C-alpha cells in the first residue's frame, strides 16, 4: 500500500495548523506555503518546510494551482491537502495533481466538478433518489428568463451561485419588485468569489433547519456517515454557530438522512471526507441543497462527539488505506458546539476589522483552533475567521453554558470582534431550548445586538488616564492630604463608542481612591482600592467601583487605551482627546468626506457628481474579506466628487466620495 511521505498543505492559518497536527503522528514530513503577508504566520513556523507563493495583498497566491504543483514537485511532496476555501473545491487542482503524479487528499476531479455545479449536483441527487427543492437552472438564461422562472416557482425564491458555496452569491428574494437588484448583487458577489456569475433559482423554504451529514468513503467502495451537524445559526447564509448532534434530529431521521447522503456518495463514486447538506422543514421533510467536497470548518464538533480524527482519516484514505469502521461502529457521545470567532464588528453591521493583536489568550478548557499570535496583524486580504471555539459536554444545555463561559474567558484585544455576539447566542433561551431555524439571528437581533454600556470600563480608563500611568497604585502619597482639591482635579475629554465624554477625576483622602463625575447623572462614582500591576500584555487593574470588585486588563495602542473587564468578551477602546483641540471635533458638523472603513476593492460606484443622496442611500460598494459591504450616506447631501472607480484597491480611511450640503 502506498503511503504519503511528504504532505504539502495548500492553505493558511488555523486550518493549515489543523492539518499539520493530524499529519505528524502519521509520520509525514509537512510543507507549508504562504503569501508574503503570511510570512510570519504560525502555520509557516510549525511546518517542517515552507515556501513563498507570491506577494500580498492579492488572494491569488493561494489560488495559483500551477505554483502549488511547482512547489510540490520542487520539494518532493507526494500529496497535497487543500483544506477548505481557496482551491479545495476546484477540479483543476485534482486534474493537475493527477497529471503530476501527486496524491490529492480529496475526491476525484469529476466528483468535485459535478458537485460544484449546483444544477448538475441537483440532477445527480434527484437521479439517486434524494428529495430536492423545486427550482430552475439554465446557465445561459437572461434576466427576463430568470424573472419568468421565479414567477413560475412562486415567491419567495432563492438565488444561488452555480459555481460555489459558503453562502457567497446567495440572495433571498421575497417579491418580484426586488428580483433584479438582488440578482445583480448575487451575480457580482459570485463573480468576485468564484470568477463565475452564473446562478440558479430555488423555491425558498423560510426559516428551515440547515442540517448536514458528514461522510467518509474509501477508495475500495466502502462508505459511512458520522451523523449530522446543525448549522442553522447563520447570518447572510454564513454559518456562525454549529453543533452536533442537532436538537431537531432523532435517531430515525438521522438514519434516513444518512442513508440519503450515502446514496449520493455512491452515485458520485466519492472518495474522502465530504458533507451532504439538507434543509429540514417544520414537518420533518428534508431536501438536498448541495454537497461540499472538502473538509468543513465545523468538522471539530463531529470529532468531539464521535472521538474520530476526520483529518487523519482523510490522509489515510488518500494513501489507499481501507476505512475499517462500519456504520454500527460509529457512536455519539454527549453534545458539542462551535462558535466562529471573527474579526468583525457586530455593532456596525458586522464590518470586517483589521489591526494588531495586542492580547490573545484562548480558554484553557475549550478546544480553540486558531492561528492568532500576540504582535500579529489581522489583514484585510483573507477571510475574517480567526478561531473556532469548540466545547463538548454531556448534555446540550451544558455545552451551551460551557461555550458561553469559554467565550467570556477568551481574551482578544486590538480590534472589534464577535465574541460577545457568540456568547449571547449560546446564552439565549431560544437557542438553549433548541427551537430555532435559519431565521434565528434576524428574529432576535434586538437581544443579540443590544449595545453594552461598559460603564466600569469607562471608569477605569478615566482613572488610568488621569494618573498619567497605569503602573502606580495611586497618586503620590504626599498629595493625599492636600486640601485644595481643585488643583488636583483632572478634566478629561474622552471619545469612545462614538460618544465624547467630559470626565473629571479627583483623588480622595484614602490612598488609591478617586471620585469621578461626568459619566453618569447624579452622585459621583467612587473608585477605591486601586491596584495596577504591569503584566506581560499590559496592565492588570483591580479595584472597587462603588463598593463592587472589578478586574481589568488595560493595553495601550498609540493614543488609544483598550480596557477589558474580566469575564466580559468585549473590550472598550477609549481615545484620549484631552489635549486635542476641540475645533477638530466633528460633533454636529457636516462631514464632506466619505472614507473607506476598511481595506478592500471597489466593486460598485452607484452615484455621480451633482446627484442628491438621502440618508442610507448606498454610494459605493466595497469588497473585503470575501464579502461585499455597502457604504451609505448619513445625511442629505449632494455628491461633489467621486474619486474612485470599480477595481480600485482602497486603504483604511481613504476618501471615496466628496459631498456638499444641499443649498
From TrEMBL:
InterPro entries with a match to the protein in the record: ATP-grasp, BC-like_N, Biotin_BS, Biotin_carboxylase_complex, Biotin_carboxylation_dom, Biotin_COase_C, Biotin_lipoyl, CPAse_ATP-bd
Domain (Lipoyl-binding) spans 584-660
The cofactor named in the record is: biotin
Q: Which UniProt keywords apply?
A: ATP-binding, Biotin, Ligase, Nucleotide-binding
Q: Where is the Biotin carboxylation domain?
A: 3-446
Q: ATP-binding: is it a keyword of this entry? A: yes
| Pfam families per record | Biotin_carb_C, Biotin_carb_N, Biotin_lipoyl, CPSase_L_D2
What name goes with this protein? ATP-grasp domain-containing protein
